[in-house]
Amino acid sequence: VQSSRLPHRDAPPQFSTPLCPPVSPPPGRGDRRRRMAAAGAATPVGAAPRVGLLYDDRMCAHATPDGEKHPENPERLRAIRRKLDAEGVASRCVDMKAKEAKEKYIASVHTPNHIKLIRDISSKEYDYRRNKTARKFNSIYFNEGSSESAFLAAGSVIEVAEKVAAGELSSAIALVRPPGHHAEHNEPMGFCLFNNVAIAANYLLNERPDLGINKILIVDWDVHHGNGTQKMFYSDPRVLFFSVHRFDYGSFYPCEGDASHCFIGEGAGEGYNINVPWEHGKCSDADYVAAWDHVLLPIAEAFDPDIILLSAGFDAAMGDPLGGCCITPDGYALLLTKLLGFAKGRIVMALEGGYNLKSIANSLCACTKVLLGDNFTYNSPRMQPFESTWRVIQMVMVRDELKAYWPVLSSKLPDNVPLRSAPSYIEVNFIFLIFFLVTLCWDLLG
């Protein structure tokens, strides 16, 4: 059990947990506490964190056209809000309202034709061809509320990111839908219409230089690879994109090879794209903590971001019908706690996936309490990472290209780490088969 007062904005990163052997911070980095204190923390020491919470019921207008059941549905937002209200958490946050994004900001990552489609798709002009249009894309639906919801979702992440970057908030959570990380430069994809996090990142870097945001760490812990976000920053060294996701040798959605650890960026952005691809389902807190301790945290220390944008999908949570993984609410809280020592604690959480209403509500609530500075005790069962997790971490770390950019990856991994065997081939492939059949049915019924 791990129990401590949460590290606030001046705390150093922690590189060890009872789940995984420790990794020492890279030599020569100095004491992060001193560096952060010298720079000034986003929240004065001893002051209560100001955590923004953006919820707007208008984003619930995006729904299946004829009321068909679908995992990405309005009840996801409402379930989270009910949980935050019931726990007395929402009232402790700074209430924020959604604003529609201006098209010029969306155009920083999406084509004019893409923007026009999403702007017009809910108009009467599309009444008789809306479903046919949706079927042209991968896992997409539209209705009369889709346009407004998409523009609100993109604008909401801009709004909270701007407030956090300006120091008006310590951190913030944007409860938005539709999600965004699958949306490509020129088309919607995978339940996502606009790439909300990418739009916000471009806004901070290119529209608000006065805020001093020069380096952004995007952490995508959604169980699916953030293909759209990766492509949008693949050659941009100002953005370090880190995605941990199920890959299953290319068979897990979005079933694209560029979710592999081999894809590390190109040009000026080479070394700034880091994928940790799981080989199968059932990954738990221990597997994610291992990826944090041995890959993400040392690299984040070296990168030293000005702000962290978190693509916060909760479909790797225990009980999620699509993810097939086993992260607990405490596990998510622990992962978030480990990020608080970076960027003066300036973290923006933007909701992505997560389709078990109880899991997504409990996990988001646990994360909100972390940002509010509540005492945190890690109470989940003690587990070991999978053998495959250790193998993936070794593959990521031994990449010569990455070592050239992140010498910390040359550190030797601990020996004699207790590991567990991967789930059986039949079990893992049965999970994938169910996912494939469900997705196929949605597309056919679309």
UniProtKB/TrEMBL annotation:
GO aspect biological process, one term: regulation of developmental process
Catalytic activity: N(6)-acetyl-L-lysyl-[histone] + H2O = L-lysyl-[histone] + acetate
Keywords of this entry: Chromatin regulator, Hydrolase, Metal-binding, Nucleus, Repressor, Transcription, Transcription regulation, Zinc
SUPFAM superfamilies: Arginase/deacetylase
Transferase found in the keyword field: no
GO CC term, one of those recorded: cytoplasm
Keyword Repressor: yes
GO molecular function, one term: histone deacetylase activity, hydrolytic mechanism
Domain Histone deacetylase: 70-371
Cofactor(s), by name: Zn(2+)
Protein's cellular compartments: Nucleus
Family under the similarity heading: Belongs to the histone deacetylase family. HD type 2 subfamily.
The name this protein goes by in its record: histone deacetylase
UniProt organism field: Aegilops tauschii subsp. strangulata
